[in-house]
Every structure is written in C-alpha cells, then in structure tokens.
Amino acid sequence: MVPVVVEPPEEKWDCETIISTYSNLYNRPKVIEEPAKPKSIRVSSKTGIPLDVLPNRGLTAKQAERMTRINDSDLPRVSTQPRGREESREERKARKQAIKEERKERRVEKKANKMAFKEEKVRQEKQMLNLRTNVQGLKL
C-alpha cells in the first residue's frame, strides 16, 4: 500500500494585492481586543460564602485568652518527669502526691469542658429552633 500525499492548494497572490495590503495602513483590519476575563470566584462548599474576599481577621480577645491559658498549662507535668534512682521514701511520697493532685486537677478540667460543650450544644439547638420557628412565621 502506497501512502497518498495530498498537498494543500497554493494561494495565488499578485504583486498589486500584496503591495496594496502593505501600503493601505489606514484600511487594514483592526485587531479587536478581547474583554478581560472576570476572575473566577471561589465559593466555600461549607458556608456558601465567597472565599478570599474578606480580609483575614486575627484572634478575638476570648480566643487569645484561651490560647494563653492553654500555653500556661503546657508546662512539664509531674507524671512525665522520670523518677530518680536514689529516691528516698519522702521524695517518693511527695512525687506520688503530686501525681494524684495533677490527676485530680485534670478530672476537674475535663468535667468543666464537658459542661461547657453541653451548654454550647443546648445554645446552638435553641438557636436552630428559633431560626426554624421564625422562618415558618415569614410570609412570602
């Protein structure tokens, strides 16, 4: 099988046509600029609010206070410190008492967190309920 080569037809230009296109600058086709494409707006799938529109805000006062509280509690704990080989009875007793105190504080902290989360859940449920009742009351 022999491959067939097809050549495109040659364009025929005469000298006058070529000269006239170069000499007639005022009559040349104008290049139309395309309008600038609008930036695509990214929308958050979670909230439906456009992203990168509002400036990033810093921490609120409450969040900053929580961060300092968390950073203060990151001190080395008694339970993570190794015990000495030559530990006397009194040192052992003091170390064990410190561990007990630490665990007691942790239990109190955990209970406070549970209560705070329960209260927040109740608050959010009330807010959603109020929102639903207000929407039902609206007449369109």
From TrEMBL:
Cellular component GO terms, alphabetical: cytosol; nucleus; preribosome, small subunit precursor
Biological processes annotated in GO: ribosomal small subunit biogenesis; ribosomal small subunit export from nucleus
InterPro entries reported in the protein's UniProt record: Ltv1
Annotated segments matching region Disordered: 65-123
Biased composition (Basic and acidic residues): 65-75, 83-123
Family membership: Belongs to the LTV1 family.
PANTHER family, sorted: LOW-TEMPERATURE VIABILITY PROTEIN LTV1-RELATED, PROTEIN LTV1 HOMOLOG
The protein's name: Protein LTV1 homolog
Species of the source: Oryzias javanicus (Javanese ricefish)
Upper lineage: Eukaryota, Metazoa, Chordata, Craniata, Vertebrata
